[in-house]
Amino acid sequence: MLSVNCLGAERERGCRFAEKFESATTVAKNRGTVTGIVPIDFGATFNGGANYTTYPAAGVFNQPAVSIAVEFYTSRTAGLINEYIIDTTAGALYRINFNAISDLVIWFNSVQAVFSPLATYTPYWKIGRNVIVATGITGNNALYLNGVSIATAATAWTVADPATLYVGARNAGLDGMIGKYTSLKIFAGPAAANLLTAQEARDHWNNSVF
Fold first, then answer.
1. Handedness of CA 81, 202, 204, 111 (dihedral sign)
2. In the prediction, which pLDDT does 29 show?
3. Secondary structure of residue 199 in the 3-state scheme
4. Cα 17 to Cα 114: distance, rounded to the nearest angstrom
5. pLDDT tens, 172-209?
6. Torsional class of 21: left (φ above 0), alpha (ψ -120 to 50), beta (otherwise)
7. Within a 13 Å sphere around the CA of 125, how many CA atoms are in the beta-carbon half?
8. Which DSSP category does 29 fall into?
9. What is the mean pLDDT of residues 20-27?
10. Which of 63, 74, 79, 141 falls 20 to 30 Å from 127 in CA-CA distance?
11. Reduced to 3 states, what is the DSSP secondary structure of residue 72?
12. Rounded distance, CA 1 to CA 172, Å?
């Protein structure tokens, strides 16, 4: 489904997974499995709790340089608590979540690689469409919200190959995200040059690639 859900230029850039959540049929064709109640109609609407989708993830994340771009819509102001946007198999966590104090946190292979406090990202949060882009290679990690750099960190981490990708909840099926996802793309490659750039993060926000 890569040829359907992302552009040729994105595949050349290293896109290994892409989902547009257009319909239940297209999600199933992309090997997605729905747990609970997740209406899918040009976007997957998650209502928290044990409602999420899973996908096989083997071979998606297992490179030194990983970038994740996710587009979603929300009717809520900044300050979400204990909600998980994506997650992977326990022990090999690649994860985007809001923690107990509303930090926006990115994990690469079970390491909290980069995070942004609520006060830092609130000015850029939108009621409506939001785009998060996370990029990381050991020692060089970055986080963007709606085209704006909101955090960087030199955290070290190693490569893993999780078996399952969870969308809309934590890997235990709890702490679900409330919102409507319209795009998720994961890029991976062998070197820092394979990371999405700040300009590409802005392009995702400006709808140049979504």
1. negative
2. 97
3. helix
4. 22
5. 898 999 999 999 999 999 999 999 999 999 999 998 77
6. left
7. 18
8. H
9. 97
10. 141
11. strand
12. 26
State how far the alpha carbon of 29 is from the alpha carbons of 5, 99, 148, 170, 202, in Å: 11, 32, 34, 23, 30
Which of 167, 165, 154, 81 has the alpha carbon at shortest distance from 118? 81
Amino acid, res. 199: Q
Three-state SS sequence of 78-146:
CCCCCEEEEEECCCCCCEEEECCCCCEEEEECCEEEEEECHHHHHHHCCCEEEEEEEEEECCEEEEEEC
Tens digits of residue pLDDT in 58-88: 999 999 999 999 999 999 999 999 999 999 9
**Residue 145 φ then ψ, to 5°:** -125, 120
Amino acid making up residue 24: A
- Extract the tokens encoding 156: 């070290």
Angle at 74 between CA 19 and CA 66, to 5 degrees: 40
What domains can you pick out in the chain, each with its CATH number? 2-205 (2.60.120.200)
Q: Got the DSSP string for 158-171?
A: -----SEEEESS-T
- Each residue of 168-180: pLDDT tens digit? 999 989 899 999 9
E strand or H helix that includes residue 13:
helix 8-13
